Amino acid sequence: MNLGLALYSEGSTDQRFLQQELRLSRKAKQVELDTDPKRTLKEVLQKAYAHKSRRHHRIDLDLLYEPLARRINLGRLSEVPAYQQFKADLIFALKKLDLIR
After folding, report:
1. What is the pTM of this model?
2. What's the CA gap between 74 and 38, in Å, rounded?
């Protein structure tokens, strides 16, 4: 399993626990090696919420994306090849549309 971008700030006790418990990669570049990232995210959330009551086990992933996006370390995200390509493609498209120089 490789979910290189953890939900917690780098170096926190919670992050280290999740990385060890779920065998997560510490290298952002390796995040793309995960063949089923949606399944991996569900597994991470199940482990993270294991101590909660059954009523709280049902997690709406759509509600997590925005808070997760606010917490992602963009420096680490920039190490992910797919993000680098997305960024380059976006800049190219915006330049082509004369929206940026």
Report:
1. 0.61
2. 20
